[in-house]
Amino acid sequence: MVRAIFARAVYRKESSRKYRTMSSKGKVLVAMSGGIDSTVTALMLHHEGYEVIGITMKTWDYATSKTSSRETGCCNIDSFNDARQAAVQHGFPHFILDIREEFGGFVIENFVEEYLAGRTPNPCVMCNTHIKWRALLKRANALGCDWIATGHYAEVRQHTNGRYVISKGLDETKDQSYVLWGLDQELLSRTIMPLGKYQKTAIRQMAHDMGYPELAKKSESYEICFVPDNDYRGFLKRRVEGLEEKVNGGWFKDKHGKKLGQHKGYPFYTIGQRKGLEIALGKPAYVTAIDPDTNTVVLGEESDLAQNYVQIGKINWIKYNGIDDGMEALTKIRYKDKGALSSLHQTPQGIEARFFEHVKGIAPGQSAVFYEGNDVIGGGIIQSGLLQ
After folding, report:
1. CATH number of the domain bearing residue 52
2. β-pairing, 251-253 with 296-300?
3. Is residue 127 flagged as an active site residue?
4. Looking at the domain assignment, is residue 330 inside a domain?
5. Which of 74, 75, 124, 225 is catalytic?
6. pLDDT category, 5, cuts 50, 70, 90?
7. pLDDT band at 79 (very low <50, low <70, confident <90, very high)
8. pLDDT at 14 over 70
9. pTM for the complete prediction?
10. Based on the domain organization, do 209 and 72 belong to the same domain?
11. CATH assignment of the domain containing 256
12. Residues 41 and 74 occupy one common structural domain
């Protein structure tokens, strides 16, 4: 069990004095997972003359996920030790912060609730927006830090209009601006993301040159941190007692309402899914809609996934404090989506993005993020897709 060593004393006024910056560039609290990106971020800023404090956040463990799988990715003891070792070797402080309770109480519960509502959540967006940055800023203030920094592949700058803007990272294969649309101006004004100007290959070379050849070769984890076996269906079954029995036996239907066969429960399917349906229709079938009230999963052809309108709520504006109705933007509806040109229109529910061409696989619960060139205009949560 990792011991939370972020002592209450750091919140006291006299402790804040102790940590006041001695650097002309200021003091920065760096989120260190023990992986290559966050480690290089911390060492890069340290070498540039910032006064660095490292912090590693423990967000979950295998007991929380109720799985026998070992801890993986950013939340295992080896990663914590790697982060601490890098800090010790370079002479800057490092803390471990236990935020499992606040993380589980929001991110994990939201994840479960969204699937039970027939939607497809993005827990990374929820964590960044509501937990991670707020936790970092709170501790940065307690330690007298000017900045917080992360190893995300994106950039933050101040626009000529005075607002702070997130831009895509130089390495488009690693760009993480999509999952950061929920950060507000207060958070962005205090954030540094130095890796946005680099390709991933350059960061690996930096790690090697800094004396961390093993870290430079370290593999990356793409699973959801609290679903280490990458089986979200199994996670839901373990998390919600009796879920499998409650939802088993619902109907697959076509778009006209004709019953096609029984399924294992609506929470175990996502919009656009083709594999794992376990139903033979003589042609490829895709999940095109989910109705939790009737435990119905609608199947159709790939063409049935095409839509040209999407309704988006819970909007957060970044580059501008709102937009002119009809503004054109590139809208991304999922993390690896290339995006499609659209016009943005105000509605009582938020924003309606009207695509200039059909897009496929719009999934309620996922994020829609609006871009102007490389800059994030804003984003929100997809409520529904439409075909008109």
Report:
1. 3.40.50.620
2. parallel
3. yes
4. no
5. 225
6. very low
7. confident
8. no
9. 0.90
10. yes
11. 2.30.30.280
12. yes
